[in-house]
Amino acid sequence: MAKFSKRILLFLAASLGMAPAALAQQDTALYHLQGVEIFGKPAEVFAAGSRVSTLDSSYLQTYTSRSLAEALQARTPIYFKTYGASGISSASFRGTSAGHTAVLWNGLNITLPSLGQSDFATLPLSSVGEVAMQHGAAGATYGSGAIGGAILLNSPTYGRQGFRGDLQQEVGSFGRYFSNAAASYSNEKLAVGISGNWQLAPNRFPYRDYATFGAPERKQEHAEVQQHGFAQDLVWHLSPKSKLSLHSWYTSTDREVQPALGAAYTNAQQLDKNLRLMAGYDYSSRWGQTSIKTAWFSDYLKYTDDNNYSVTDIQTYQVQAEQTYTYGKRWSLRGGVNLQHFTGDVEGYGGGVTEDRAAAFALFRFDPTEALELSLNMRQAFIKNYNPAPTPTVGANWKLASGQNHHLYLKGNVSGSYRVPTLNERFWQPGGNSNLKPEQGWNYESGLRHVYTLGSLLVESEATAYYMLVDNWVQWVPTPEGFWTPHNLQKVRSQGLELSSQASRQLGDLKLTATAGYTYTSTEQVKAYEGTEELDRQLAYVPLHKATFFTDAAFRTWSLSGNLSYNGLRYTNGNNTNFLPSFTLVGFALNKQFLLGQQKLIASARVDNATNTDYKTMQNLPMPGRQYALSLRFIIP
Question: What residues does the TonB-dependent receptor-like beta-barrel domain cover (predicted)?
């Protein structure tokens, strides 16, 4: 233990002993911190050479009633495996598995320690204020699990002073109801907000039963979802140099597990309860910005069917301390430490388990000239018996050419990543494997970004090529005794191309925005340490092609948005003999705003899967066809 603590202290001392500073892109927003200038979006400051994107705020406002999974599936390159209309929804970022995407809330990781992944179907958009994505490996910045990418969620901000209220009611197809209420108040010293949501989705939609001769049409049964939750935020400026913040987020999702076609009905139910509490303190001084966050997360999952009963109850205690020092417009350094303590009361483990994790990190940003931005990041994690190798990141953005209307940037990075084996992988009985090694990944990427402006016309285009190797990939395999166990079975290569282009223009009262994106993702096993070698074949449930197109138009009190998402063929087994066909989903939303004195009433009509496409994201689990929704939203003031 003494050696363990000494390694932490030495690394932390090295991190905090260096002086820092930061400057980012010249063509993005400007942020102020006690007289120090930091350019760029917060997620981009220490991510030079990486692809970082965000969900548009107007889209988040329009689709408040949807889950994070539905939003990211419609407007990002990430593919989501959704286990039917009521099942869990997991991410496949750059062809990696569900456990290879880190999810952070206000800077702290909220991924379930038991499963090592997040169920995006339990994360409602109405409870978050900003959604950003860092594509590719980001282990140095975000820690365990950030192999394929990271999803960054932040609480709402309350910039407008005074009181604000928001009431929304939505009704939709197949018996769906959604209600949301929010209120906030802010002044120069204090900002406080609270919101609550409730949803009922019986999901009694018609489908074709292809497991029965003649494929008769049936109505889906046993796929109901009930969800409710609340979020609370408080930011108190104690002085011009310090502030205290308190955040809470609770969701309860009670759902009937949709049975697969042809499978026996077992009355399966799943209940998820997730409570997240966080407190933060920020202080500015001549030594820079000090930030301390402490959190407690409670994740409860109960699964029952006619033959099984399983309860998972995990408590996570987390502390993160950071010191950021910025010098002028040239460089910035952030050093910090993250501590986690897990306690698990899981029937499947045969008793309670505990685990401590620690990580020390240093993030460095240096801009030697206005045309060149560099970042160098490093993280070392400490977990008893599972210490992964240090994970560095080296990245650069270079303004290659600049003209009157054009700016061309060359970017690239090399980054390491890791994933520590989950509690289930090590402690589940029978089958847990305490001899697992951490997964280790390396990501190499390069790309071009072009910005064109002409009057009110703005066109931003980006192309990124990447190559990734993940070693000691964990896979669950059956045993002769009849149960499953995880092993470090293979090395996996993921390589691909990400293309995107967005154009926006203001024509008087009319504002138009259109975005197109395409991803090519080739993910294959290149080496097998045990079992069958299925080399040079696409991994199951990873589409080779995905494309998105969406547009938004706003004219005075009217707005119209459209979404198109194409998802290519996906194999359902390792030898690529069975597959699910490609599918395209189309959706539209029309909003009309009415002014009632100082208040606003927004009426919305939305159609999802407008072409009534018959599709599946997982084998033998039908998804809903065309769906309609009507919504009224009252905003004060």
Answer: 252-609
Strands 30-33 and 217-219: unpaired
What is the structure's pLDDT at 533? Answer: 75
Residues 101, 136 contacting (CB under 8 angstroms)? no
Closest CA to 263 of 205, 301, 306: 306
pLDDT tens digits along 438-448: 999 999 999 99
**Cβ 104 vs Cβ 128: under 8 Å:** no
Residue matched to tokens 């991924």: 111
Longest pairwise C-alpha distance within the chain = 75
Cα angle for residues 580, 115, 271 (degrees, 5° grid): 85
What pLDDT sits at residue 556? 94
How far lies 545's CA from each of 253, 443, 506, in Å? 32, 20, 33
Predicted confidence (pLDDT) at residue 11 exceeds the cutoff of 70: no
Report residue 120: phi and psi, to 5°.
-70, -15
Taking the mean position of all CA atoms in its chain, how far away is CA 167?
Answer: 26
Cβ atoms 87, 26 nearer than 8 A: no
Chain-centre distance for alpha carbon 353: 28
**Coil, strand or helix at 268:** coil
Phi, psi of 137 (to 5 degrees): -60, 135
Provide CB contacts within 8 A for 294, sequence distance 6+. Answer: 278, 279, 280, 318, 319, 320
Sign of torsion over alpha carbons 377, 295, 428, 89: negative
Q: In terms of C-beta density within 10 A (0-12 exposed, 13-18 middle, 19 or more buried), how is residue 194 classed?
A: middle
Residue 356 CB-half CA count within 13 A? 7
Q: Please give the model's pTM, rounded to 2 decimal places.
A: 0.91
409 contacts 400 by C-beta, under 8 angstroms? yes
User: Whole-angstrom Cα distance, residue 14 to residue 335?
Assistant: 9
Q: Model confidence over 569-583: pLDDT tens digits?
A: 999 998 999 999 999
Q: Which two tokens stand for residue 337?
A: 């430490």
Query: Residue 608 belongs to what domain range?
Result: 2-636
- Give the model's pLDDT for residue 637: 83
Distance CA(89)–CA(69), nearest Å, equals 7
3-state helix, strand, coil in the chain (%, to 5): 10, 60, 30
Total domains in the fold of the chain: 1
The enclosing domain of 359 has a CATH number of 2.40.170.20
pLDDT at 80 over 80: yes
Write out the two tokens for 593: 């705003």
Q: How far apart are CA 60 and CA 15, in angstroms?
A: 37
